[in-house]
Structure formats: C-alpha cells, structure tokens
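Batch job 17 of 40 flagged for manual review because the log was empty.
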Amino acid sequence: MTDRRVAQETAEFTPGYDLSADEVGDLTAELLASLDCDWPAKYRYVGIEIAGDSPFSNIARHIERVVFEESFGNDAAQMTAEYGPYEAGSVFFVSIDRSTEMPSGALRIIGNSPRGFKTLNDARSEPFSIRPADVADQHGIDDPDALWDVGTVAVLPQHRSGAGAVSVQLYRAMYLSALQHGIDHLVSIIDDVPLRKLVGFLGIPFVPLAGSAPGPYLGSPKSQAVYCHVPDFQPRTRRHRWTVRGFLARKALARLARGSDDDALSLVS
C-alpha cells in the first residue's frame, strides 16, 4: 500500500529535512493510523512505501539528514541541494519501529526523473568519470523507465543491530516493488563499509558500475558506483545462503531471499 491518495489530496507540500523529534513522532503516528493494516504482533518493524510528494515522506528525509549528517557531515542545506533536483522522481521505503511508533530507517528510490538519475549524473565527474553511454552499453540498459537509482539508504544508529533487520527489510521492500514496476536495473553510489556487508554477507549482486574504481563522494572517503541486475537479485541471494558468510547471515537472508517477513511490508497493490 502506498500513500499516493494522501499525496494527491494535499495542495501544498514542501520537502524538508528539519522536522523536530515531536513532529516526526506525530507524523509517524498519523501515518500508522492512516493504514488499514493488521500486522501480527511478532513484527516489531514494518516497512511502508511512501510517495515522494506525500507529507509523510518528510519522515524519510528526516532520517536521511540525521544519518548522513552524523556520518558524512551532510546537513539539511546540503541534502536539499543534492536531492532537491530529484524529488519529482523520488519514492521512499520507510521502516517503523512499532514498539515506539518512531521511524528506524529509510531508503530512497529515484526513478526516471526530469533531471535523470543522480548516480549517473554524479558519476560523470571525478573520481568515477563514467559516461552514461558506457553504463548503457556494458549493462544492457536500453529503457530508462526500467532503471531505478538507489539514492540513499539510512538506518538510525539505535536500530543497526539485530542482524541488520531494518536494512534488510528496506532492501526486501525495494526488491518487491521493483518487480511490481518492471524494474530490471539498479544503480547507486554506496560507501565502502555498508557495501562490503551488502555483497559479502547478504550476497546482493552489486558490481562496479561500468568497471569503475572507488573514490571519495559526498563526505565518504571511499564509495563505489555500483550496478545490480534485478532479475539476478533473488537467485544470487538464495545461493549465497550456502556460503560460509551466508551461513553467518542466515537469519537476515531468510528475510531477504525467502521473504519470511513479507507480511510486515505495506507496498503498492
């Protein structure tokens, strides 16, 4: 279930990163109350897809700003400058902790927008120096409407334990939504530390974008521009369960590859 009805009925909405803690709490409680979902009590974390022009989407922007400011020094002004041009193509997946009725993490997708894709635009410059034509040729991308840009993934510090439950839920929600929308390709620029976990422990088939090398990006000392072929996502994560690292991440992979907690997701029907 997505929040497009609320977004369409709201005449004025301004994307923002400066919500107070009380405003985030009130908005999250309102979001949960607006959904007709009877989640089983066992699901502490629930994932919700939110249109980028919904007032509820500022919950996700708040998470982005808090996490990226702490990690890379990206304050609200910089986040607005970086992602403002892509708001028209943005959709968010938000994870909410039902025990506190507060958000725990968010993932931003940028679809085919009037400004294109942030990853492809930014990767033209140093340190990546990737030509979009090379991306299209090497990865077989011939339809921009079949491409999503994973613009941000942010999990609040107090929710980064529990076998990566929040980040796994966000990636699972994104994958299922990609299938529903006929998305074949993902691109992103990801900091080296989470990227090693995503590939090494979860088996998500990210590869260097057009064979590029890593480099500094938006405050991260080492990030990699990456590509993922969506049809390979589930087969690769399923096979990864039988590797040594996959065994260590078996609980997370049960959620990611087998969808053991899909009932905790509220996506487009």
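Reviewer: the log was empty due to a logging misconfiguration, but the result itself is present. The chain has a mean pLDDT of 92. Unflagging and moving on to job 18.
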